[in-house]
């Protein structure tokens, strides 16, 4: 009987810290959750709901929307050649991000992931473009690619040819945007891969080398499989980010020449907000939001599910 009482007392003593911890978590949630919910509702839920309503009106942003047009904004958007070009450009950003930017980031990460002073310097250099503000990056590259001054002007003068304006050429303007995007964001993905590579057990790499695996074999059969979760997350960030490209394009090309370098978001800004077509812009935003949500949901279900 005494043994039973002792066991009950010890169990009660163990449960007390658990109850205190649970009560502390509940108290923290009650204190911190309401302000977060209020902010999230005001700055996310409310604007999303408003956009969903305004998308069915021809509204300029002033007063109360009264001119209900139904699905006309969506029909106009789908039939607009510039919007179709913007969608194609956004798909190009996704393709270049997956086929150029991420492989480049992975190769560089494999080269400099070891902790050495030299590699620290290289990481800083490669990561600096990502720290730079998007607007600043676009402005810097617009100066570089200008035919009157900058690097392109120096090259054309050295070759003795007429000035060439890359961002004014319909055939090359969006290629210039893609180059800047790769330069701007590859360092972010590189750091994700470096963090994952540093977590790969060294004994696995040594075991593979003892078994006769080459450097490429270690990368292919040991390191890449071990950092697969990081690659999956990196691809997700890349795709969602590609759908939201805006800040780089505006200072670099402003969607030109002749609206050939618009992405979906710059199209929304130019043909919706800038022209006070808030209803039309809201319709574009609704389509973009639904697309991003569907991509996120399906990608997580296909690639980010925890194994059973």
From TrEMBL:
The chain crosses the membrane at residues 26-49, 93-113, 125-144, 172-196, 230-250, 278-299. It is a multi-pass membrane protein. One of its GO terms (cellular component) is plasma membrane. It is found in: Cell membrane. Residues 87-299 form the ABC transmembrane type-1 domain. One of its GO terms (biological process) is transmembrane transport. CDD domains: TM_PBP2. Keywords: Cell membrane, Membrane, Transmembrane, Transmembrane helix, Transport. Belongs to the binding-protein-dependent transport system permease family. This is ABC transporter permease subunit.
């Amino acid at each position: 009987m005494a043994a039973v009482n002792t066991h009950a007392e010890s169990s009660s003593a163990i449960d007390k810290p658990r109850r205190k911890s649970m009560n502390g978590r509940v108290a923290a949630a009650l204190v911190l959750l309401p302000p977060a919910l209020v902010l999230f509702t005001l700055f996310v839920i409310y604007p999303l709901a408003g956009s969903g309503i305004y998308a069915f009106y021809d509204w300029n942003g002033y007063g109360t929307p009264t001119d209900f047009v139904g699905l006309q904004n969506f029909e106009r958007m789908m039939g607009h050649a510039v919007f179709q070009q913007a969608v194609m450009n956004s798909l190009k950003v996704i393709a270049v991000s997956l086929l150029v930017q991420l492989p480049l980031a992975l190769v560089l990460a494999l080269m400099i992931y070891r902790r050495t002073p030299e590699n620290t310097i290289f990481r800083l250099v490669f990561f600096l473009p990502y720290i730079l503000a998007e607007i600043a990056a676009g402005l810097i590259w617009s100066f570089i690619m200008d035919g009157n001054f900058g690097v392109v002007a120096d090259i054309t003068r050295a070759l003795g040819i007429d000035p060439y304006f890359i961002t004014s050429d319909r055939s090359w303007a969006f290629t210039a945007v893609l180059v800047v995007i790769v330069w701007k964001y590859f360092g972010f993905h590189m750091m994700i891969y470096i963090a994952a590579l540093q977590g790969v057990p060294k004994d696995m790499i040594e075991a593979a080398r003892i078994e006769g695996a080459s450097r490429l074999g270690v990368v292919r059969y040991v390191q890449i499989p071990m950092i697969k979760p990081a690659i999956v997350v990196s691809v997700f960030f890349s795709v969602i980010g590609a759908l939201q490209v805006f800040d780089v394009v505006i200072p670099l090309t402003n969607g030109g020449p002749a609206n050939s370098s618009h992405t979906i978001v710059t199209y929304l800004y130019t043909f919706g907000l800038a022209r006070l077509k808030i209803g039309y812009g809201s319709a574009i935003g609704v389509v973009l939001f639904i697309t991003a949500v569907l991509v996120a949901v399906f990608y997580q279900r296909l690639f980010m599910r925890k194994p059973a």
